[in-house]
Structure formats: structure tokens, C-alpha cells
Design brief:
Elements (H helix, E strand, L loop, with lengths): L1 H4 L5 H9 L10 E18 L1 E2 L11 E2 L4 E12 L7 E8 L2 E10 L4 E8 L5 E3 L4 E24 L1
Antiparallel strand pairs: 1-2, 1-9, 3-9, 4-7, 4-8, 4-9, 5-6, 5-9
């Protein structure tokens, strides 16, 4: 008779105990940052400087501290005197190699030029320790070059 009086407790009291054995999902967080490159004036070609004024080279530039992706590139500059049938190329290098992300600006006319490229199809990954630098190639004299690389990395 006493055996029949023992009942199972209601489900609501079991809830706290069953959650102890469930897996807890964590959400990954990402941070966005920008690398700033620039140079006051250039004619021809060369690597841009970092925001602190350090000159970059093919294997010398910003050293990445985390793994992540390059999301985009933007450039703003001024053409002093344009030349017909010419353009300006801004090229990103990772560990001394072109990565396929660049900006091309028209240099046929004088004045301020700006452009941006956003990565949508082919994501460009980087790892901690990779080196990023930016190269400019032009046939015209340009000044006040500002180039930003947008990065996204895991926190």
C-alpha cells in the first residue's frame, strides 16, 4: 500500500536538474578594426606608410595579432595632374604576395578620387603573424593618399 503512495514529482521540479546535463552553446564574437595606410605625396610607385608613419615594404607592415578576414578596402586621394588612359592601382600584399584585393582609380582628370571594394564572394583570411602592406602604382603625381583595410577577427 505504501508503495503505491510514492509518486513521481511534477516535471517542473525536474527542470533544474535536467539543464545541468544539456550542452551550453556559446556565441562567437567578432571585432572590426581598420588598418590605416597613407602617404603625403608620390609619383610613380611605392609602398604606403602605416598610420604611425613607418615605411612599409613587401614583407614589412602591420603584423596581425589574431586570425580573421579582410572585409574591404577604401582609398581616398588627390590627383595633381591627370593623364589620358591611365589609372592608379592600390594593391594589398600579405606576406609578400598580392592577395587579389585592390582598388583602381581613374587618373585621367585632376581632383579628389575615392573608391572602395567590399569582399563578398572570396573571403581573404589572415592568421596571427601574417604581415599586411599596401602598394600604390601610378603614372601621375598624387597626394594625400589614405587607404583603409577593414578587418574582422575573433575576440
Amino acid at each position: 500500500f505504501f508503495f503505491l503512495m510514492i509518486r513521481r514529482p511534477p516535471r517542473s521540479t525536474l527542470f533544474p536538474y535536467t539543464t545541468l546535463f544539456r550542452s551550453i552553446k556559446t556565441q562567437e564574437t567578432y571585432s572590426t578594426s581598420f588598418l590605416n595606410f597613407g602617404i603625403q605625396e608620390i609619383t610613380g610607385q611605392g609602398f604606403l606608410k602605416t598610420s604611425s608613419g613607418a615605411q612599409t615594404e613587401i614583407n614589412q607592415g602591420y603584423v596581425m595579432m589574431n586570425n580573421g578576414i579582410i572585409e574591404g578596402l577604401s582609398t581616398n586621394l588627390e590627383v595633381i595632374k591627370g593623364i589620358k588612359n591611365s589609372n592608379i592601382q592600390i594593391i594589398i600584399y600579405k606576406n609578400g604576395k598580392q592577395i587579389g584585393l585592390n582598388n583602381i582609380l581613374d587618373s585621367e582628370t585632376s581632383g579628389v578620387k575615392k573608391t572602395f571594394t567590399v569582399q563578398t564572394n572570396k573571403l581573404i583570411n589572415f592568421e596571427a603573424g601574417d604581415v599586411l602592406s599596401v602598394y600604390v602604382s601610378s603614372k601621375v603625381k598624387i597626394k594625400n593618399i589614405i587607404t583603409l583595410i577593414k578587418l574582422k577577427s575573433k575576440d
